[in-house]
Design a protein that fits this description.
Blueprint: E1 2-11, E2 14-22, E3 28-30, H1 35-39, E4 59-62, E5 67-70, E6 73-74, H2 75-81, H3 84-93, H4 99-111, H5 119-124, H6 132-146, H7 155-160, H8 162-184, H9 198-207, H10 218-230, H11 238-247, H12 253-264, H13 272-285, H14 291-298, H15 317-333, H16 338-352, H17 354-358, H18 366-376, H19 383-404
Antiparallel strand pairs: 1-2, 2-3, 4-5, 5-6
Helix pairs in contact: 3-10, 3-19, 4-8, 6-8, 6-12, 8-9, 8-19, 10-15, 10-18, 10-19, 11-12, 11-19, 12-19, 13-16, 13-18, 15-18
Bound molecules: carboxymethyl coenzyme *A.
Carboxymethyl coenzyme *A (CMC) binds near residues 270, 307, 365 and 366.
Length: about 425
């Protein structure tokens, strides 16, 4: 980020100059880090919609144009030519891997696929119907108990073991997920199998039986790779900003990622993929073709889940790719899902309706991803977990940036206090 001419700020008959910072894609920001010192003022930006909280070299988004790039590579090219593991390497380490780097990374993922046997007892102590996101957050945080050498809470030390910690997290998260699924259904746990690729191994742990190995159709492995790849990073969204926030205190990678999982769970963020399917099911059950729901959304009574985005004021490029993949997958698998018909109708109606057009509300990544996951056989309450598996490389890369780039600075926003002014303690008998 280079420094260019400054902005002039006038307050109380005094003028102050504030530096303008410019990023590598020419986006500009006023650097207000000295503002309070110079003027006594802080900035106020509810929801951080206009706040750049860090410098990052991982992901570039241009919301007005619907552009998304990981490390400079357009998402469309990665979706067409890459897969999840290669993209994870790119996001974390900054470059596409050579053949040798790719093999080493895959080998590390394979080596780290199994979880500590004692962690199995942890699963058993949770209720059978525990939400998988609650379990995932707990288990990822617990990794620090079982692999303490990877989680010292000293960034200098943790970064020495970073490759192992990153591979541990990215690999075990799918084992944990599959194990949670099996246990919630009283099914025998299936262990990871050497020789299977990342997505195939996950589906094997989910759907194989001790007496019957799951045969993964190519089309399913491709669809899952695509879903995970498209979720791999998305710059400073709610969960990634949370990961950086936690990491900024010096916390280890597992703790930071567990915090990211919790932030992702909410329906306005990663929980939206589950909410979209619930919405489509409700519309279907009510015999609505979507038009009544659209009317209710315009009245503010309902929210069209899977629509709208804080940054994209144009088509979310991921939604375009997933929408097409959804058609292809269902066709190839011979599935006729009435929810897809409703989704298509909602999309067409909303894109023509002035309420959505004026507010620049377009389908986002979550609008069609759930229909793909349903077709693959992933249960509804695990959709957000799949988002978390996909987002793991982004969280890892952001944790690494916090731990390695620049002088460590704890994240600590200020606030505008609007509570009571000072008052004296009132004894119990006088209240
Ligand atoms: N349905 C109906 N109206 C909407 C929607 C929607 N999905 N999204 C925004 N609006 C309206 C909103 O009511 C407001 O209208 P008005 O100006 O009349 O008050 C206007 O559009 C601006 O909305 P906002 O809530 O101020 O926008 P935001 O940037 O704070 O919120 C959002 C972004 C994604 C939380 C929101 O669009 C939303 O709730 N969408 C549905 C949930 C969803 O799909 N989330 C997944 C996001 S993508 C994956 C991820 O990164 O997590």
């Amino acid at each position: 980020m280079s420094e260019t001419p400054s902005a002039l700020f006038r307050y109380n008959n005094q003028e102050f100059s504030l530096p303008i910072r410019q990023g590598s894609e020419a986006e500009q920001a006023i650097d207000i880090s000295q503002l309070r010192e110079k003027t006594g003022l802080i900035t106020f930006d509810d929801g951080f919609g206009n706040t750049g909280s860090c410098q990052s070299a991982i992901t570039y988004i241009e919301g007005e144009k619907g552009i998304l790039r990981y490390r400079g590579y357009p998402i469309e090219q990665l979706a067409e030519h890459s897969n999840f593991v290669e993209t994870a390497y790119l996001v974390i380490y900054g470059e596409l891997p050579t053949q040798e780097q790719r093999s080493q990374f895959s080998a590390l993922l394979t080596e780290n696929a199994a979880i500590h046997e004692r962690m199995v007892y942890l699963f058993e102590s949770y209720p059978r119907d525990a939400h998988p996101m609650a379990l995932l957050g707990a288990m990822v945080n617990a990794l620090a108990c079982y692999y303490p050498h990877l989680a010292t809470n000293n960034h200098d030390r943790d970064i020495i073991n970073f490759d192992d910690a990153a591979a541990t997290l990215i690999s075990k998260v799918r084992t944990i997920t599959a194990m949670a699924y099996r246990m919630s259904r009283g099914l025998p746990v299936i262990y990871p199998k050497r020789g299977l690729k990342y997505c195939e191994n996950f589906l094997h742990m989910m759907f194989s039986e001790p007496y019957d190995m799951y045969e993964c159709p190519d089309v399913v492995a491709r669809a899952l790779n695509l879903i995970l790849l498209l979720h791999a990073d998305h710059e400073q969204n709610c969960s990634t900003a949370t990961v950086r926030m936690v990491a900024s205190s010096g916390a280890n990678l597992f703790a930071s990622a567990a915090a990211g999982i919790c932030a992702l769970w909410g329906p306005l963020h990663g929980g939206a993929n589950q909410a979209v399917i619930e919405m489509l099911q409700a519309i279907h059950a009510e015999g609505d073709d979507g038009s009544r729901f659209i009317a209710a959304a315009k009245d503010g009574k309902r929210r069209l889940m899977g629509f709208g985005h804080r940054v994209y004021k144009n088509y979310d490029p991921r939604a375009k790719i997933i929408g097409k993949a959804c058609d292809d997958l269902l066709r190839e698998m011979g599935i006729n899902d009435p929810l897809l018909d409703i989704a298509r109708l909602l999309e067409q109606t909303a894109l023509r309706d002035s309420y959505f057009v004026e507010r620049k509300l377009y389908p986002n990544v979550d609008f069609y991803s759930g229909i793909i996951m349903r077709a693959i056989g992933i249960p509804l309450n695990m959709f957000t977990v799949m988002f978390a598996i996909g987002r793991m490389p982004g969280w890892v890369a952001n944790w690494r940036e916090v731990a390695t780039v620049g002088k460590p600075k704890i994240y600590r926003p200020r606030q505008i206090y609007v509570g009571s002014q000072v008052r004296d303690y009132v004894p119990m008998e006088k209240r």
